[in-house]
Amino acid sequence: MTAPARVEYDDLDDLTHRLKLGTTPSELHGSLSGFLAGGGRVGRQPLLAVLHLDGEAPNPTVADAALLERLSRQAADQLADPDLGFEPMLPEDDRPLAERAEATVEWCRGFLGGFGLAGSESHARLSEEAQEVLRDLGTIASSHLDFGSEDEDEDALIEVHEFVRVGAMLLHAECASDPAAGNDTLH
Questions:
Q1: Binning pLDDT at 50, 70 and 90, where does residue 22 land?
Q2: How far is CA 179 from the centre of its chain?
Q3: Rounded Cα–Cα distance for residues 1 and 157 (Å)
Q4: Per-residue CA distances from 115 to 21, 71, 76, 180 (Å)
Q5: How far from chain centre, in Å, is Cα 60?
Q6: Averaged pLDDT, 17-41
Q7: Which domain of life is it from (predicted)?
Q8: Model pLDDT for residues 106-122, shown as the tens digit of each residue
Q9: Of 27, 68, 117, 169, whose Cβ has the fewest other Cβ atoms within 10 Å?
Q10: Nearest alpha-carbon partner for 36 in 163, 173, 187
């Protein structure tokens, strides 16, 4: 049996435009990742309903719904990957620095919203390190990034990306594995 095709940034970009979601691909992936990291579970309810996202377009087609299902499984699998394979979905490295930086800010904004939607009891018992990660993600989410030296800024963005990536996995490890966690009512 062949594994389903990996959902890529451009796939989500097309979807957000097609459905007129009013959100960016990075913010959508951040919302999903935050929801899952916060202990939420998608269940049988449509992903867009779980994340409280609706667009101006009609309901997603069967193909769009399948793409969202693959995205949900992919994010859940990556967050739980023991080899730390999770990656925030952001524009490719060949895109302009300013675009990638803004997408990182949007991803963090989405992550925090999704994390809050999970509404898990485990949030109250987060370690100091996890609380600090949330605070730092909040700082990134409210940032407007200015650029000076292209090389230094590229290095800084790489560091921020790695922090976001590892922070999401830390929060997932604390919340999603907690027996009290989980918004299972979505089934």
A1: confident
A2: 22
A3: 38
A4: 19, 17, 14, 15
A5: 20
A6: 93
A7: Bacteria
A8: 999 999 999 999 987 77
A9: 117
A10: 173
> Which position has the higher pLDDT, 122 or 6?
6
pLDDT of 33 reads 96
pLDDT digits (tens, 9 = 90+) for 45-62: 888 888 988 777 667 889
Q: Hey, what's the torsion of the CAs at 76, 82, 85, 86, to 10 degrees?
A: 40
Got the DSSP string for 15-29? HHHHTT-SS-HHHHH
- Joined together, the tokens standing for residue 137 give 């993600």
Structure tokens at 88: 């925030």
- pTM, two decimals, is 0.88
**Architecture field, domain 9-186:** Up-down Bundle (1.20)
In 3-state terms the chain splits into helix, strand, coil percentages (rounded to 5) of: 60, 0, 35
User: Stretch 36-44: mean pLDDT, rounded?
Assistant: 90
Measured CA distances, 125 to 79, 102, 121 (Å): 20, 31, 8
